[in-house]
């Protein structure tokens, strides 16, 4: 499994990575669960502080706070990737509070006509990686501010 | 970092937050991060094979799909900005010239000649014989010859270029092939050569950009001069500035934009409608206030108070006491319509080329200008009745200003000291070092900088160092609002020798106090006035413009028009400070040409410096260098 790292010295804030991440998520949810209308949010978030553009992304921490804090054990580590199980997540938002990098976002989606709030984070494009494809944000980054580890 | 340097405005920004209204600062926050490809000018959207982006760090693509590299893309984008600025300024001038033509043909219903003396002087300057002609015939011919600058086929330079700069400068521009013959074709030329697959040489592109920018200058000369003929040449006038000029008990109408054709008529019809406004309950009658350059135009000629410069234009509506905003062209935020809809405020558009969804459109053609202006004022009075008293919050602060420093009014004033050679007192004081030099502040506000902060801080430091300041456009607005354009400011901020000169001039002008340390010369097209003054000085001294200790600065630059102005100012030989990097960072070559290579070709060049105090130091250094080169006292020599 490859992991991403981002160097803000090369980031131009074009949000190409955000767009790529969002489009993948949109395609997954549209194809697999056609009737589910889920708010799609990117899992890499580019912010600006003074003149610096900073792409914030999940570090897949070894001792992940989000994982440790989750009361329903919805967060697990698979092949070193920290992932959330949508069905187990109750949307309490504790992981969002706990992440030191601020890269978990809470989003709403509708299932069985009920609106449910769940946590959203980077899964390292596991589906793509299993097909030997690179994470999409990395592919999209025009300046290679994002690189693979 | 705050939003506005002028703290009195902050209460309205807070009010907007309470009322869930987004202002320019909020929209900016939501836009972050800004895309760096656009910021650096290396995003090309010229054809549909792209958009292409060049990686400035060298890892990704170094060429667009067509093969254009960063230098080509940056240069193409930059000169297109210049072309847009030139188009905006020069079409303003064209409207004025066409109106003068109608006045000359006696077909105009709404306009007349106010300054026939200036008209005659212009005719003389344009080599038009006035012998045996009446004022209308002269007007028609002046308009006709001016309009030729937009359409000339012959290769000789534009009349308003060749008659308004120093002979050596004209020669230099002609030698470079940038002394253009036709303003509009210079814009078309940029659009044509930047089409995919035409000009790829960055230097050739930049030269064409310079030629087009010189067209911007020419259009400004036409705008200023012919506006003076139609509406009068400004004379010193006392007025007030900042949001505090909006009156609680009046029907407040803001005029905003750039072209005085509209606002002059509004100001005219107001007098006859005062009674109607009082009958509607507005005990203070109708109160016209200015915003942006339309505001500057009516301030200089009519003494109309100035409510706001560019960045705080939305706040005029937030006061809850503005009945109408009447706009013409340029620098009008489309957001005004939405914000006006949260209040009783009416937004009126008046030009066929500038409509805004949500605004009411009353076109001010020559035939119906007065009639439509009356309708606008009538509807404003109606709106007053719908005002919600609970939503009113008018910041109290306003500062007194002395404005109206046209080249003519400055010369008239100086001629009281030396009627033979009116410029002599100014020259003498520059030579003896009482005035170290002159800085012309122009240009916009930019949301990336605390509004007016750079203007105010640079000015204070320059004044302290005995540098006289001229100002136009939203730069002038910044100084007006922040109490830097009155006699008190001279006493407070001017260095000793500058203060002495301004006090002496104030006496000559019949004031009991010194002249302001910053001369308000008008709107952004009135940068031509500052050039006229500099050209007169240079001609008197028999030197070229670049030798004068004069620097231009746009510390909060934003618009394409400002890029055009900066470029011609450099082309005329002036060092030009800008407070933000224009979108050229993606091409070190282009950036290098603008900040240094240009100097070898046209003497003028750009100085990019964000920090206002640092910028002021750099300008002072340049001025002292120029003084040393002229062999007059310079601190550089003292250092040696
Ligand atoms: S979401 Fe935050 S805490 Fe959890 S693994 Fe990623 S970076 Fe670590
Ligand atoms: S929001 Fe979901 S994943 Fe996050 S801590 Fe709560 S239950 Fe766990
Ligand atoms: S794609 Fe690359 S350059 Fe663009 S915002 Fe993301 S990390 Fe920055
Ligand atoms: S003109 Fe060239 S660089 Fe520009 S979008 Fe087209 S292919 Fe790309």
Explain what the structure shows.
- The complex is a heterodimer of chains A (149) and B (640).
- Chain A has 149 residues and is of the alpha+beta class.
- Chain A contains five helices and eight strands, in the order βαββαββαββααβ.
- In chain A, the strands form four sheets. A two-stranded antiparallel sheet of chain A has the order 1-8. In chain A, strands 2-3 form a two-stranded antiparallel sheet.
- In chain A, β2 (45-49) and β3 form a beta hairpin.
- Chain A is globular.
- Chain B is α/β, with parallel strands linked by helices.
- Chain B has three domains: 70-231, Up-down Bundle (Substrate Binding Domain Of Dnak, Chain:A, Domain 2); 243-386, 3-Layer(aba) Sandwich (Rossmann fold); 400-558 and 609-630, 3-Layer(aba) Sandwich (Rossmann fold), CATH 3.40.50.
- Helices cover 50% and strands 11% of the residues of chain B.
- Chain B has 26 helices and 16 strands.
- In chain B, strands 6-5-4-7-8-9 form a six-stranded parallel beta sheet, with helices on both faces. A six-stranded parallel beta sheet of chain B has the order 13-12-11-14-15-16, sandwiched between helices. A two-stranded antiparallel sheet of chain B has the order 1-2.
- In chain B, α4 runs parallel beside α10.
- The A-B interface holds A 10-15, 46-48, 53, 142-144 and B 32-37, 39-40, 53, 55-57, 59-61.
- Bound molecules: iron/sulfur cluster (4 copies).
- One iron/sulfur cluster binds at residues 44, 46-47, 49-52, 64-66, 68, 73, 196 of chain B.
User: Given the helix and strand composition of chain B, which structural class is it?
Assistant: alpha/beta
Poorly predicted runs of chain A are none
Helicity level of chain B:
40-55%
Strand content of chain A: 25-35%
Fraction of residues in helix of chain A: 10-25%
- What's the β-strand tally of chain A? 8
What name does the CATH topology of the largest domain in chain B carry? Answer: Rossmann fold
CATH class of the largest domain in chain B: Alpha Beta
Class by alpha and beta content of chain A: alpha+beta
> How would a textbook summarize the main sheet of chain A?
2 strands, antiparallel
Averaging pLDDT over every residue of chain B, what do you get? Answer: 96
Which stretches of chain B are low in confidence, meaning pLDDT under 50 for 5 or more residues running?
none
* Oligomeric state of shown chains: heterodimer
**Rg of chain A, please?**
15 Å
